[in-house]
Protein 1
Amino acid sequence: MGIEGPKTYDIRTYGCQMNVHDSERLSGLLEEAGYVRAPKEADGADVVVFNTCAVRENADNKLYGNLGHLAPMKTARPGMQIAVGGCLAQKDRDTIVKRAPWVDVVFGTHNIGKLPVLLERARVQQEAQVEIAESLEAFPSTLPTRRESAYAAWVSISVGCNNTCTFCIVPALRGKEEDRRPGDILAEIEALVAEGVSEITLLGQNVNAYGSDLGDREAFSKLLRACGSIDGLERVRFTSPHPRDFTDDVIAAMAETPNVMPQLHMPLQSGSDPILKAMRRSYRQERFLGIIEKVRAAIPHAALSTDIIVGFPGETEEDFEQTMHVVREARFANAFTFQYSKRPGTPAAEMDGQIPKEVVQARYERLVALQEEISWDENKKQVGRTLDVMVAEGEGRKDGATHRLSGRAPDNRLVHFTKPDEDVRPGDVVTVEITYAAPHHLLAEGPTTAVRRTRAGDAWEKRTAAAAAKPAGVLLGLPQIGVPAPLPAADAPACGAGH
């Protein structure tokens, strides 16, 4: 490619946590093929990969805008390559190369393992390679991975989704649900723990439907319980479940398995039964609130979060008030709220009763104000509690100025705490008392009660030292994600909003 040393790569990820996890696989594939990650301060990488999302508003315009910015750079750098993958690539296929002929590779959600081969083929043949598989070629977890965290990891248990929500295009792009065998999942988790990982997040488009492909309706609760017997695994989370499949055996497994964290993300979407029906959601308000009531009874300190869409076609003021009612009743710790906007290829985009933008905006602001009030009230209940906080990397943007560190409580609340005298590393666990609550974080301003150095902290230290010794492969991380929380803070749950 006319340069010295190994070729560099840069992956730009958009959308949901499934895309974040896929990007870790893409990084692993490229590094196995001899590429190294481009340093943050570099002018440009030899290979730039866009892992796209088809759910976010104006996703296509943003992609072509970004591709346009790279066109002159590519002209000035012979040998530079650009690849586009992910859900938008799966949907638009040949359109991408027609609109941006300087793109070298287009690949889909089912064949991410082909990226290095397609890049090489494009280089040799001097023409764009567009290869979109219609079904999964290899389960992503069989591919090499470059994880963004030394102490926390995503573990994919299924891909695809069998639901047909009218606002969501994900099933069309990710395919029908395919489940991994439980033994393969547990073997991956055990291997991760052996490397120093102490927190895992089980990942699926509809994570608690796990087992439908295996013929076992209780497979997910069994998997949670099996995680409880893995020595060294301290925290287990999962995302995103669907109320339809959220059964009593899952609640029991959460309550009775000590390392399954007291935290649940349960997408509501709407509190109105007519709107839920129009969305093709298979539960109603009473069923949703019943699940919340059971979870609170079994796990009193659980923090609950949700997704809500405001302004779905046909939504009346009464429908919206039903959503507000559920929010008041459920008392979510936080909510990812979205203003409905048309997504090409979804049934909802063609529905009558599209709501004027100004009406949607006004309702959205009312909902956000209510949820902010509830989030703050729920956080204030944490003041005075003593919590074990897993130290995170990149979660506290002001930590340097405030002389604090940051981490996640068991219920996944973000905690900023006073930096202790002794050395503390990401992955270690500190015990602190909460002294102040804001709507979106907690503060522990007093001295740290205890510091527990962990194998996860050792793993972070070892990895950081290795990165420092090899500058070309320096860890850039995904600073807005830190410990893989169920929902990456950088980009609210795009396809998670469809579950």
Protein 2
Amino acid sequence: MNDTKQSSEDLAILDQLNKDYVRSDQLSDAKRFSEFLAEDFIVQTPGVTRNRAEFLEFIAQPRPFKDLAVHDVKIRILSDVALIHGRATYTMLADGAKQEALYTDAYQKREGTWVCVSACAIAPGT
């Protein structure tokens, strides 16, 4: 398989995984997250680091926001690692405040499958 075709296929897979990540976050879908998070997954948000189990427990709770959308997504494939950078917007349920966050998610291709190994979000109130 040539590099261009492989790269196009990988980009499509990673784009879908990014969409799944965002959708699963909005819907508190810990089950879907469990399907693509690596066993050694770590997430960092301001002041908090969570491992996979802690994140799945956290994400299963009702989300404090609505209307989560992503913008300016950039996917960079670096051999068997990919970085997804983006900007998210959402509305807080408590007070209707519009918020914005920046994120970078790291994926690694393990045994032919892309899995999320790390996530970092710079967001108020997370």
